[in-house]
Amino acid sequence: MDVRRIPTEPFDDQRPGTAGLRRKVRRFRQPHYLENFLQAVFDAAGDFRGQVLVAGGDGRFWNAEALAVLFRVAAGNGVRRMIVGRGGMLSTPAASHLIRTRGAAGGFLLTASHNPGGPDGDFGVKFDTANGGQAPESLTDAVWRRTLELREYRVAEVGRLDLDRPGVQQAGPMEVEIVDPVADYAALMERLFDFDRIRSLLASPGFRLRFDALNAVTGPYAVEILERRLGAPPGSVVNAVPLPDFGGLHPDPNPVDAAHLVDWMNGPDAGDLAAASDGDGDRNMIVGRGMVVSPGDSLAVLAEHAGKVPGYAAGLAGVARSMPTTRAVDRVAADLGIPCYETPTGWRYFCNLLDAGLIDLCGEESFGTSSSHAREKDGLWAVLFWLNLVAATGRPVTRLVEDHWRRFGRHAFCRHDWFIPDGEAAARVMAGLEERLATLAGQEIAGTRVTTADSFTYLDPVDGSASAGQGIRVFLEDGARLVYRLSGTGTEGATLRIYLERYLAPDASHAGDGPALTASLGHAAAELARIGELAGVHEPAGVI
Ligand code: VG1
Ligand code: CO
User: Fold this and answer.
1) Which residues of the chain register pLDDT less than 70?
2) Which of the two ends of the chain, N or C, has the fewest CB atoms closer than 10 A to its terminal CB?
3) Highest CATH level, class, for 4-180
């Protein structure tokens, strides 16, 4: 079978960000753009000739076209077999699991996650390595360097494929195996959680669950697991059909984009647990009656009660959180006598810790939580964990969180996203803070005082690598903390994320929501960074 070498020119904007390469669909559709990036991954990641790879996407606009390109480049690079979810779809955690169980050399996840879809929206490619985890920084840097020098890519024709027909099909020199995207993943969930107990909870009179798949990839997973296997009444999963435009919804599980769910849980007809996931199924939002569980609290509560869940009954080796995530889980870890690691933003930094068996649970403030069962974050897994905890303790979601606060204190949290159209201005804001770091200690701010301030460098305890410049931390005397970093998933301008955390002691009042409790910190943080002065922006675009 003929492998063709296609001459090309490098693109200068193919540096992977926090989670893969994310660009406007328009950009991805430029001739050679996707082929170049994929070839760079093939060149940098090692030799995949004769190997098996996993592939699937979140079903967004351009999923099928991108998959067709991937097949041609994979065939051109001598891949033996691609394992693909039916319809070309796989959730990110399900793909991670498949890579691991099938001994694949890696996988391509065609997704821009929570970014908007459609012809004017975003597309993306994440690459996972043989452990099912996101490519580490060393590899994404190597891919980027390769994109800058690439002069040709290799393709082979694969003919017509029927992505809806399970089984193996010949695709030119390669095989494509279409698998049920849900089966293996659902079986894994059955091993981790007490399905009998959850089934009784869901059958108990009056208990109401709503899972909103936001018309993204998790619909079929949630219907199979929550409705079919656990017996939640049909209709418990809403917006369950993945659509290329997500049916106009924004598949970002947070209180702003999924406000309808929060409104329901705050209203007179509230259910008992509501949840949502994102475009590719790796994020989760948990809502109890009258309360959105902040991701930092969620991680802490899961860690606190993990012993009650079959998959974690043997205890946790350790836990980890991304740096901007609240330090609630640190208190639980100290109480359990287990280590707690602080990593940079992005799931890839957890993977070494998971592989080395140093941690079993980890999470990020951006509605991402997962465990040693996968090497990606996992939205539906978190929902099942919460259901298992409610079933095992007999305590509603809200009570579990409030009890946690009474025991450990509350880390109130909010994130302000400042959209700064001019990327250079955003860089100036960060540089300005960096320059003044040494002078911040002692400065009065928001009615308290700065104790220390630094720029976060992560030292990976497993491979010894250092990742510098991962965000600026400002610690305050009353236990509060401000964190600044630039987003690495956007596709235009820059987004400066300011993470606000305030600690309320166990015996203090815990009333109020995160945004209200941290509002004054938010003002102080913006002033401290001189955002108005340096970037001409005066309000955050998002408060989450
Ligand atoms: C954001 C989140 C980060 C998350 C990343 C990918 O990155 O803050 O915590 O890991 O998205 O999530 P950034 O650089 O924009 O802050 V997803 O669901 O795309 O895979
Ligand atoms: Co995602």
Assistant:
1) 1
2) N
3) alpha beta
Q: Which ligand is nearest to the CA of 217?
A: 2
Mutational pocket test of ligand 1: of 21, 456, 483, 489, the residue with most ligand atoms within 8 Å of the beta carbon: 489
Give the nearest ligand 1 atom to 115 CA.
19
Residues whose beta carbon lies within 6 Å of some atom of ligand 1? 18-19, 113-114, 278, 282-283, 322, 345-347, 364, 366, 368, 487-489, 497
- For 213, how many CA atoms within 13 A lie in the half-sphere containing its CB? 27
> Hey, where are the domains in the chain?
4-180, 184-406, 410-543
pLDDT for 78-125, tens place per residue? 999 999 999 999 999 999 999 999 999 999 999 999 988 889 999 999
Q: In the CATH hierarchy, which top-level class contains the domain 410-543?
A: alpha beta
Write the DSSP symbol of residue 488: S
Closest CA to 429 of 489, 495, 480: 495
Domain 184-406 has CATH 2.102.10.10: no
Please state, in angstroms and rounded to a whole number, the distance separating the CA atoms of residues 412 and 514: 5
Nearest residue to 212 (alpha-carbon basis) of 399, 380, 414, 389: 380
Average pLDDT, the chain: 95
- Check residue 1 and give its pLDDT: 57
For residues 133 and 100, give the distance between their C-alpha atoms in angstroms, rounded to a whole number.
Answer: 9
Would 184-406 and 410-543 be classified into the same CATH topology? no
- The token pair that represents 259 in the structure block: 């406000």
- The Cα angle at residue 273 between residues 367 and 341, in degrees rounded to 5: 30
Rounded to an integer, what distance in angstroms lies between the CA atom of residue 532 and that of residue 164? Answer: 52
Report the C-alpha gap between 135 and 366 in whole angstroms. Answer: 19
Query: Cα dihedral angle (211, 213, 219, 224), rounded to 10 degrees?
Result: -10
d(CA 311, CA 304): 14
